[in-house]
């Protein structure tokens, strides 16, 4: 194998922070190098240096045997280094072809030739083995397909080095498989891939080598044969993490039902959803993307309209027509999209923690009692161990795990007894994940009840007492944890597909 | 495992997590745009004082303040709207309709002074309420909803008044609302502006309503999912803006001692300009009443100063336009810097 990229001695500091210190790694042609590390380990900074967004303070970058200076994103592109960001950078109103070749449209007499553009795109997609219609609007595609468009766009620059930042964070297992086979194809073409991931189980699948960063430093690399998940995690967090034991439905003592949903349907997707949530229980919701799990949550809390649902909270029939009603009945929803739907990113921790319970800190005439509120949010910052310089720090600047804790604090401050977590650990690093898991367990031990939607089966099995599996807008199975396995859940999750093909 | 603090919070272990310096830094940064605007105001006052000896006379200062009153009151109300990320174009002609209705109540219907004035105020509030319903419930874009209301209010003002001014000459005490001097030398209109500014400040900074105003502007959907009845609060925001419009209507009617149905168009843009110069973001989530007051003062100091220096009216507009550009530009510059 020939060496494609060699990076050594990279340092970068920002005012007050040493983001990277003497970091190194190597990448060969046709290889997947997986870069892991907790949030704040310096992965993103390193990739931003490679893609020309940041300038390095020290160190060398050698591409195909020659030292290069990457001083702008344009240079990186010309050198053949492309990056696919975690947040997609596509224009939803433009077509696939228009997105891929934006800024480089083929022209005839100064006019954009849509025909040549589409032909060119079809050829590109064909070469990559991606089956997509170039004329389709990107906004109408699934997240997985949008990602394919991003990859195609990156490769349309004849990228030799492709950087992928958590590409599977929004994908289901089957979509992930498609992505992996695309990556296999790229490897055969000789593309070197730097793959950033939080998902340990992916390492074994696709990594040819793993490089670990911690606190801006290079910790070490493992070759394919040596990759062992506990070792990697230990390198990442600098301490040993035990695999937790799985809970069972049997050991769950309480029998009283705190939330009962009957006959919930929506116009487009959900059909006759029925389930019960018991006190102190974690009820996992598993299923493929598009199965309707988030839709169930949003319909229950009144964020979206539903039809014919009867909902009982603590045995009493309730009417929920907007989120304010759900909150009044003690149901809090923690969205999968923390940044867009869970937080006021531009505002401070204090504001976010108190957002749902501001009324409790209001005196006569609607005047706020700010002191009391601040005291409360300081308590939560401390008890949930939210890492923030102060309660007045802007939420945007916290790490993913700490942002999630802020959202949790918001609902605890409102004293919600029923919490619906939608993908509680999406975009959160391994160490913080463990902490969120512990937190969820603490919460149910104290008598809270949790509905947990998750696309990560190990997570579902690790935490849930019982597991609801959905497919195509229906519940296809409800399993006790002791009866469940990843394979069994997948059977139920693909149930609809079987029905259709029969 | 001692898990109870998770649930209860524990006031006993409440140690300040915050560093004091960090607190002060955020505070300073928040004040920067305001102090920038305030600095500009001071510079302008000093400049015009040197340029013309007539400028820094109490009679002139008093007339600057009087000229600020109407635009200032409109700007106060619309600050709330702009902080939610919305816009209200109907405040200019809405003010006119409120003035005309005050005229109808007091002159045509001969109602008692207080009742007529309250009627004028409620006219404004009602228009704001309708704006709020259109925006929060019918989900019309604020620009469109209030553009429509702007035209409706203008039309109604003309129809109701019969395209003729309504004179208040027979109404005792009406003129004193704006031009009386409870504080010697200071027209009541200015007093009303300052009182309303204090009320607006308290509303925005110290109440639940103010918190929700900022929260909605910051991220409306996240606020809604947090169990805040955002539709209700949006309606309240526009109604409050409408109420301020009503105040502006009464003040301008009193100042002119007549309801002029033809004026009003264009006032909304001046009020919005004052809000923007004062550092409130058109994107929502950020702004202050203090800034708005300063912004309104900058506008009227500029216009008054240029007039005293005998610069043509046409050029006054150009200068105000340039000031708006500079104000918004420095603001984006500052934001870009704090983002990187």
Automatic annotation (TrEMBL), chain A:
Bilayer topology annotation: Peripheral membrane protein
Subcellular location: Cell membrane
One Pfam family per UniProt: ABC_tran
InterPro entries in the record: AAA+_ATPase, ABC_carbohydrate_import_ATPase, ABC_transporter-like_ATP-bd, ABC_transporter-like_CS, P-loop_NTPase
Principal location class: membrane
Gene source species: Mycetocola zhadangensis
Name assigned to this protein: Sugar ABC transporter ATP-binding protein
Keywords (A to Z) from UniProt: ATP-binding, Cell membrane, Membrane, Nucleotide-binding, Repeat, Sugar transport, Translocase, Transport
Gene Ontology cellular component list: plasma membrane
PANTHER family in UniProt: CARBOHYDRATE TRANSPORT ATP-BINDING PROTEIN MG119-RELATED, D-ALLOSE IMPORT ATP-BINDING PROTEIN ALSA-RELATED
Residues covered by the ABC transporter domain: 5-240, 253-497
Molecular function in Gene Ontology: ATP binding; ATP hydrolysis activity
From TrEMBL, chain B:
GO cellular component labels: plasma membrane
Alphabetized Pfam families for the sequence: BPD_transp_2
PANTHER family cross-referenced by the UniProt entry: ABC TRANSPORTER PERMEASE PROTEIN YPHD-RELATED-RELATED, RIBOSE IMPORT PERMEASE PROTEIN RBSC
Record lineage: Bacteria, Bacillati, Actinomycetota, Actinomycetes, Micrococcales
Stored InterPro entries: ABC_transp_permease
Protein's cellular compartments: Cell membrane
Species: Mycetocola zhadangensis
Protein's UniProt name: ABC transporter permease
Keyword Hydrolase tagged: no
Source species, domain of life: Bacteria
Keywords: Cell membrane, Membrane, Transmembrane, Transmembrane helix
Membrane topology: Multi-pass membrane protein
Transmembrane segments: 32-51, 63-83, 114-137, 143-167, 179-204, 233-253, 274-303, 315-333
GO molecular function, one term: transmembrane transporter activity
Membrane recorded as keyword: yes
Record CDD domains: TM_PBP1_transp_AraH_like (cd06579)
């Amino acid at each position: 194998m020939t060496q494609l990229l060699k990076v050594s001695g990279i340092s970068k500091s920002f005012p007050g922070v040493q983001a990277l210190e003497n970091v190194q790694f190597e990448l060969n042609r046709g290889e997947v190098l997986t870069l892991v590390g907790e949030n704040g380990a310096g992965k993103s900074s390193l990739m931003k240096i490679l893609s020309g967004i940041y300038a390095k303070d020290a160190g060398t970058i050698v591409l195909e045997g020659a030292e290069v200076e990457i001083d702008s994103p344009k240079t990186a592109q010309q050198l053949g280094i492309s990056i696919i960001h975690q947040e997609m950078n596509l224009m939803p109103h433009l077509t696939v072809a228009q997105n891929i070749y934006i800024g480089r449209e083929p022209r005839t007499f100064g006019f954009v030739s849509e025909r040549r553009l589409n032909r060119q795109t079809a050829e590109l997609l064909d070469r990559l083995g991606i089956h997509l219609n170039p004329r389709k609007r990107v906004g109408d595609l699934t997240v997985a397909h949008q990602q394919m468009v991003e990859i195609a766009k990156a490769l349309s620059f004849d990228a030799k080095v492709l950087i992928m930042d958590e590409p599977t964070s929004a994908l289901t297992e089957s979509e992930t498989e498609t992505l992996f086979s695309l990556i296999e194809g790229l490897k055969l073409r000789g593309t070197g891939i730097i793959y950033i991931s939080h998902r340990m189980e992916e390492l074994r699948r696709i990594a040819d080598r793993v490089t670990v960063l911690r606190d801006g430093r290079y910790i070490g690399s493992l070759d394919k044969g040596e990759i062992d998940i506990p070792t990697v995690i230990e390198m990442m967090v600098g301490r040993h993490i035990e695999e937790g034991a799985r809970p069972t439905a049997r050991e769950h003592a309480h029998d009283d039902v705190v939330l009962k949903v009957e006959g919930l349907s929506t116009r487009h997707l959900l059909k006759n959803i029925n389930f019960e949530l018991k006190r102190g229980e974690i009820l996992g919701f598993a299923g493929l993307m598009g199965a309707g799990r988030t839709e169930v949550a949003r319909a229950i809390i009144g964020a979206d309209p539903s039809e014919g649902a009867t909902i009982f909270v603590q045995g009493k029939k309730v009417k929920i027509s907007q989120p304010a009603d759900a909150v009044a009945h003690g149901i809090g929803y923690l969205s999968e999209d923390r940044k867009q739907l869970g937080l006021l990113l531009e505002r401070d921790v204090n504001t976010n923690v108190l957002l749902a319970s501001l009324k409790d800190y209001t005196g006569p005439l609607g005047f706020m009692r700010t002191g009391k509120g601040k005291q409360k949010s300081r308590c939560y910052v401390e008890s949930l161990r939210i890492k923030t310089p102060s309660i007045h720090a802007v939420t945007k600047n916290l790490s993913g795990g700490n942002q999630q804790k802020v959202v949790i604090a918001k609902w605890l401050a409102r004293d919600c007894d029923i919490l619906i977590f939608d993908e509680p650990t999406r975009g959160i690093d391994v160490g913080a994940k463990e902490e969120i898991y512990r937190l969820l367990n603490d919460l149910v031990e104290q008598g809270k009840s949790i509905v947990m939607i998750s696309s990560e089966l190990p997570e579902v099995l690790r935490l849930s007492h019982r597991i609801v599996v959905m497919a195509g807008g229906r519940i296809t199975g409800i399993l006790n944890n002791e009866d469940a396995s990843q394979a069994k859940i997948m059977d139920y999750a693909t149930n609809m597909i079987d029905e259709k093909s029969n | 495992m001692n898990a109870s603090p998770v649930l209860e919070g524990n006031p006993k272990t409440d140690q300040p997590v915050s560093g004091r310096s960090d607190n002060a830094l955020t505070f300073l940064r928040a004040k920067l745009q305001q102090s920038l605007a305030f600095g500009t105001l001071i510079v302008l006052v000093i400049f015009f004082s040197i340029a013309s000896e007539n400028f820094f006379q109490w009679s002139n200062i008093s007339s600057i303040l009087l000229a600020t009153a109407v635009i200032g009151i409109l700007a106060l109300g619309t600050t709330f709207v702009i902080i939610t990320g919305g816009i209200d174009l109907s405040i200019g002609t809405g003010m006119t309709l409120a003035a005309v209705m005050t005229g109808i109540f007091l002159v045509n219907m001969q109602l008692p002074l207080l009742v007529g004035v309250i009627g004028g105020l409620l006219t404004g509030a009602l228009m704001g309420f309708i704006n709020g319903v259109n925006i929060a419930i019918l989900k019309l874009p604020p620009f469109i909803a209030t553009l429509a209301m702007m035209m409706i209010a203008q039309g109604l003002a003309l129809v109701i008044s019969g395209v003729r001014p309504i004179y208040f000459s027979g109404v005792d005490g009406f003129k004193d609302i704006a031009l009386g001097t409870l504080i010697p030398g200071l027209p009541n209109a200015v007093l009303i502006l300052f009182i309303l500014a204090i009320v607006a400040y308290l509303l925005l900074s110290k109440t639940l309503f103010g918190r929700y105003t900022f929260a909605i502007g910051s991220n409306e959907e996240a606020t809604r999912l947090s169990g805040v009845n955002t539709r209700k609060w949006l309606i309240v925001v526009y109604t409050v803006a409408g109420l301020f419009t009503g105040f502006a209507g009464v003040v301008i009617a009193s100042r002119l001692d007549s309801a002029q149905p033809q004026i009003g168009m264009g006032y909304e843009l001046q009020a919005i300009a004052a809000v923007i110069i004062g550092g409130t973001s058109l994107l929502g989530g950020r702004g202050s009443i203090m800034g708005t007051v300063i912004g309104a003062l900058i506008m009227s100091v500029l216009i008054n100063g240029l007039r005293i220096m005998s610069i043509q009216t046409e050029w006054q507009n150009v200068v105000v336009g340039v000031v708006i550009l500079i104000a918004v530009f420095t603001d984006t510059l500052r934001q870009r810097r704090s983002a990187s």
